[in-house]
Amino acid sequence: MSHSETKAKCLKVMNESGRVGNNDAAKQDGLNFYKYMFGHHPDLRVYFKGAENFSPTDVQNSDRFAKQGICIRQNLMLAIRILIDTYDDSETFKAYARETVNRHIKFKMDRTLWAKFFTLFVNNLKEHTTVDEETEKAFQEIGKAFSDECIKHTVALNLPN
Ligand code: HEM
Question: Along the 161 residues of the chain, how does pLDDT read in single tens digits?
Fold first, then answer.
């Protein structure tokens, strides 16, 4: 698959369940990701200070995730779309991966999480729309290129984790 075909496959699914529009349906897509993460990977809640004990229902109903958090949730979906969209523009893609790492330094994340993220993300999408085998491979391919650059950058920055 060419880079542009990989990108197109991912964007098709993003347009179904990873939307960035300024409307309730798109906002719910972002919210769904956090509900999935908090429900299926509760160990990751430790990074979300103040929400360490949240259930998916708490995520749906909390001010942080349902109101004040709207920007953050939308930003995550937007960040993923930017990665997908720049996959055929390698320099921008890699620079944006490094920028994402920079923005997360303060959370002191374990660097192995960068390699796990896209799997988690696709598994969330699968709960809301159809993701065929080829499309899943496309997400994994982008996720691998992303995490390779992220991990290289965490090492270059000499981050402890
Ligand atoms: C914000 C953790 C992966 C993009 C945050 C926040 C945490 C966090 C704790 C602050 C939000 C809050 O406390 O309410 C994590 C963890 C990840 C992960 C544990 C991996 C498992 C990613 C990835 C991307 C991303 C892969 C991009 C594709 C963002 C964005 C924000 C954010 C855009 C909004 C704040 C900002 O722009 O600095 N993340 N993150 N995150 N994350 Fe992540």
Answer: 899 999 999 999 999 999 988 888 988 898 899 999 999 999 999 999 999 999 999 999 987 776 655 556 668 899 999 999 999 999 999 999 999 999 999 999 999 999 999 999 999 999 999 999 999 999 999 999 999 999 999 999 999 88
Give ligand 1 pocket residues (Cβ under 6 A): 44, 47-48, 69, 72, 75-76, 79-80, 83, 100, 103-104, 107, 109, 113, 117
CATH of 3-157, one of 1.10.490.10, 3.30.1020.10, 3.90.226.10, 3.40.50.1580: 1.10.490.10
Long-range contacts of 20-26 (CB under 8 A, 24+ apart): 20/74, 20/77, 20/78, 20/81, 26/74, 26/77
Give the pTM: 0.93
Distance 75 CA to ligand 1 centre (A): 9
Q: Residue ranges of the domains in the chain?
A: 3-157
Q: Going by CA atoms, what residue is nearest to atom 27 of ligand 1? A: 79
Sign of torsion, CA 25 46 144 123?
negative
